[in-house]
Amino acid sequence: MSRGLDPVSPTATVQAAALQMAEDDVGAVLVGSGERLEGILTDRDIILRLVVEGRSPAEVSVREVMSSTLFTCRPEDPLELVFDQMLERQVRRIPVLGPDDKPVGIVTLRDLVRLAPDSPRSAEMLRAYAGARRAEPAAEAPDRPADED
Q: In CATH, which of 3.10.580.10, 3.30.70.1170, 3.40.50.300, 3.30.390.10 is domain 2-135?
């Protein structure tokens, strides 16, 4: 799990958020404040909802392209539960909330596979995820599920 993440403001430009992602060497940033999570912005969100449409990252706010439907977990959740949620929701990243419902990090599919590399569940998850993504068309709805990649 990535910890100590600084959420970006929903009013920030996508360019500023992308610069933060590049500096932190991550594929997603949480959107909101340390107190309240409003969404998640992924590299895929930027590609599909900004670049493909020919929009300028310097002129578009994060709120306009972020995924606002969030699927979250807790640090104490069992790996199986998080694997299942990722598979069911077809996401690779899930924000982690602490006991006070404040964001404490992001767990990725890669994190889970690294924690249990020899688990048959890891291989199953990767196969299922890859198969589901090949068959699914790109989403276009304005209120999209979080992290569609």
A: 3.10.580.10
Residues of the chain with pLDDT under 70: 1-4, 117-149
Q: What is the pLDDT of residue 139?
A: 42
Candidates 12, 15, 19, 22; CA nearest to 56 is 15
Per-residue pLDDT reduced to its tens digit, 14-45: 999 999 999 988 899 999 987 789 999 999 99
Write phi, then psi, for 53 (nearest 5 degrees).
-85, 0
The answer to whether the beta carbons of residues 94 and 85 sit under 8 Å apart is yes
Closest CA to 37 of 139, 113, 147, 111: 147
Q: What is the pLDDT of residue 6?
A: 82
Question: CA-to-CA distance for 116 and 47, rounded, in angstroms?
Answer: 30
Q: How far apart are CA 46 and CA 74, in angstroms?
A: 27
- Could you give the CA distance from residue 140 to residue 124 in angstroms, rounded to a whole number? 28
